[in-house]
From TrEMBL:
Protein name: NAD-dependent succinate-semialdehyde dehydrogenase
Pfam families hit by this protein: Aldedh
Residue ranges of every copy of the Aldehyde dehydrogenase domain listed in the record: 21-479
PANTHER family: SUCCINATE-SEMIALDEHYDE DEHYDROGENASE, MITOCHONDRIAL (PTHR43353)
Protein origin, superkingdom: Bacteria
InterPro entries on file: Ald_DH/histidinol_DH, Ald_DH_C, Ald_DH_CS_CYS, Ald_DH_CS_GLU, Ald_DH_N, Aldehyde_DH_dom, Aldehyde_DH_Superfamily, Succ_semiAld_DH
Keywords on record: Oxidoreductase
CDD domains: ALDH_F5_SSADH_GabD
Similarity remark: Belongs to the aldehyde dehydrogenase family.
Active-site feature positions: 258
Organism: Paracoccus broussonetiae subsp. drimophilus
Signal peptide interval: none
Amino acid sequence: LKMLLKDPSLLETRAYVAGAWTDADDGATFDVINPARGDVIARVADLGRAEVARAISAAAEAMKAWTARTAKDRAQVMRKWFDLMMENQDDLGKILTAEMGKPLAEAKGEIAYGASFIEWFGEEAKRIYGETIPGHMPDKRLTVIRQPIGVVASITPWNFPNAMITRKCAPALAAGCGFVGRPASETPLSALAMAVLAERAGIPKGLFSIVPSTKASDIGKEFCENPLIRKLTFTGSTNTGRILLRQAADQVLKCSMELGGNAPFIVFDDADLDAAVEGAMASKFRNNGQTCVCANRIYVQAGVYDAFADKLAAAVEKLRVGDGLAEGVTTGPLINEKAVEKVQDHIQDALSGGARILTGGKPMEGLFFEPTVVTGITQSMKVATEETFGPLAPLFRFETEDEAVAHANDTIFGLAAYFYARDIGRVTRVQEALEYGIVGVNTGIISTEVAPFGGVKQSGLGREGSRHGIEDYLEMKYICLSV
Ligand code: ADP
């Protein structure tokens, strides 16, 4: 991997703790594996609670001077970090593909997306406005100021090794907070490469730490029990989110949670079918189906069901599965064996209920899986209630608008939903009726740093991105002055 990089020093395997590149206290390391090839690409420092506690203390200390700087000054440092990420987009993309598997073009797209949060929130730092309120008595002057919440702890998954971290650290640093992030142990290299660039950009020592570790629950406990932590921000499964929320209760920690989704994708009979197929391909097969906003259930109205199924299968057959570093590959491997088994299980379960495979359906060598379309899906099958997180497009048939909306909402999740329709009355009714934090209408791509991303119901708490994304990192202080 080092040989593929213009700047090999971006491939860092030590942790970045309290402004220093460090090994674990006990010298422990863990292997990072390339999911396309199965080979070990790096051995990374495997930290424990003690090192993480040092990172937290350093962040609390460094925060004092960082907060005291002007917003413009903080924004300039962040802008430099953004520029460095874009200058090194190629190398960061290659590191990301090697540890996670997504095709290089997609990986580079993620670097640009990830960096955009640093640019955006650096700019937002300058707009952390307060309020004045007309006094309730003649001698009272009321003001509200907004201050950084304190040291932020972050836990992120492997599916966006760069962007999931920048969405959290960028608003934290812009607000004036310190930050300690634990990347997923599948994908620590992208996080460490970002830390190399953070250091070069002039992010102060200690303010920002990256603490790789395989001991997820130990680190989660340190984050929830260390009194210097004031906020926990997490992206991952709903189940882990529940565990962390329970743990966070003891310290009454403010939490942001980006949890699981089970996105419906509805195609009405007045939809532009070609556009719907294009949107379904983007929403379902991006990142090989491994995003929390991927279409998980595709509902197609009876009148266009067969036509849509045929067009989708034809598009799916054009995908090229392979090593993400190879030219022309559109679809990488799954992250691990468990992910392969889950896709297989969902297909088996559907087939035993009477579903039919239109294309794909089988695992390939290693962690690769044939992109799959299955028809004849019903609400009693596993895919109706569980997130597949893989390249399986299950097609449900429906008759009426009410039925589609009812099925779409029949889940504990509420992150993203999509639908294709052209009748303006229907578009308006359905966008209002869907119980989701994000709705894509006639599009399969909804993520951007300028809009609020987040779920309702058991998909989460809080929003990331947009002018709202910095709110979770600020506390309001109301000041009552008697004159
Ligand atoms: P995913 O299916 O995306 O891996 P998880 O919720 O299992 O979803 O993992 C998301 C992140 O949370 C990962 O970095 C994982 O290591 C971490 N994690 C898992 N369990 C815990 C826990 N009990 N405490 C803290 N972090 C955890």
